[in-house]
Amino acid sequence: MTVPETLVDEHHEPLLDKCESHLDENRNWPTHGTYEYTSYYHSRREIVPFTDFIAMDKEFDFVVIGAGPIGAALAFKLATDNPTSRVLVVEKNWAEPDRIVGELMQPGGCQAIEQLGLQNVFSDISAVPVHGYYISYRGRQLHVPYMHDANGQLRGVSFHHGRLVMNLRAACKAQSNVVCVEGSVTELLGQMDNNRFTAVRGVRVGPQRIQADGSDECIDVCSRKLTFVCDGITSQFRKQLNERPVELISHFCGLVLEHEPVSSDTYFDGPTGTTSHVSRPTDTAGNPLPMPHNGNVMLDGVGPVLLYQMSERETRVLADIPGPFLPSESNGQLRETLRTSLSHAAPKHLYPALHAALMRALDDSRRIRCIGSKFIPATANNIDGAVWIGDALNVRHPLTGGGMTVGLWDVVILTDLLRTHDAANSQQVQRVKAQWQWRRRPRALVVNVLSVALHALFAAETKELGLLREACFEYLAKGSHYTMQPSGFLSGLLPSPMLLIFHFFSVAFLAVYLRVSDESVAYSGGSLFYRVYSAFYTLYIAATVILPVIWRELQP
Fold first, then answer.
1. Are 489 and 500 a contacting pair, CB within 8 Å?
2. Is 179 helix (H, G, I), strand (E, B) or coil?
């Protein structure tokens, strides 16, 4: 495949040359093919600076705040579904973003991308197919593959976050009815009652960087139909809709491993590219990952440690540090905590190559990049003229990599409903919002609840949670529906809250059995009476893990 001249990285080298991409030979994988909007990847011709926007017409049919993955996908779909409508996208910085999360798209998200007409968006960015999860716990390993459909195994994709965002933005820039402005939305405009918005009719746009003294010139933009708030996890407008406090659960600390690419004839077999090989733990050369082209989850650290490829030669490491407080980097506590966590997650005697690569990456990093893992449940949107969507509406723990899956399906469902309703009619829009909230809830609830519940188990800060973690591993190792249906929850393919509750409490009752029979390694010893008591106390702990989160997700 030829490399378009316009697709170059910051060092002006073709992206595909850096990673010898597409070593996997299955041409049906989503990382193959040519992206039709590649020529717009680096183009700034379509981006309107704020100083030029001042002289333009200020009335638009739709206004989208933020051009992250959800905002860009939404703007593209609005533009293609409504070719006669004008769509405004306001983004502070149209340069390639650099984040340490949002780098793995679950199969459910890939299905949403296809529904939006962006099925080639993973091409030309060195993306890597993902087949499932490799999980390591107490020296044991298991593989949890993704589900199959009539065409074979479903796959996810992992990538550099910024490159995917740029490909999505390229699709926006290619639409003639989309105006891309580089600036900041400083205020929502509309009707208020008791300092709360009852209706949004537009936005106030200012320059890219706003002065603290408020001396910048700002302009008012009218939104004739709808304003979409898509400004992400740090949304400055979320409190206009949802005043609930943000819950900080833990922190992810990110590193990058560089390694040799994977040979497809070694790791994969058959026309569907199904994973058939786990690398030998004693391998010291080549790719150090236990199972390339999968999410690798190591459960023996301070918190769970995730590893997934961003390209054939680069792997992201995310080490979780539970709790709302992060150890200080200035006095060395953060590095020491990470060293301990990584050493326990990938012990030298089991994973010599991976252990050496992790220690080298930690020692070579000049600054540890960290991001808070938060939980914010969604709430009903009763404000006329505006829709909150993506992380501006709802945030879950990034452990399961389901955020973009939820956000993109929100876009699919919402735009599908808007096609059959008049977006300028407030009554029809309120009906659309109610239907959207109802239709999005099952998938969002499963992904959100699972992310928080699994983190509680995998971080295992008490003996009871450690027992539940062990039971979870044993449950997944049973195979059949014990493995594949939980895989469906993880991948966003099985949006069934009742089935999720069934499997979660099946794990809890397995934990009861392990404790009473004294077969548990994580929580052993004690008299029969004490084992029975602690087993049912563990069942109570399991209920306190999942039921409050479900209740919060179900609140209007």
1. yes
2. strand
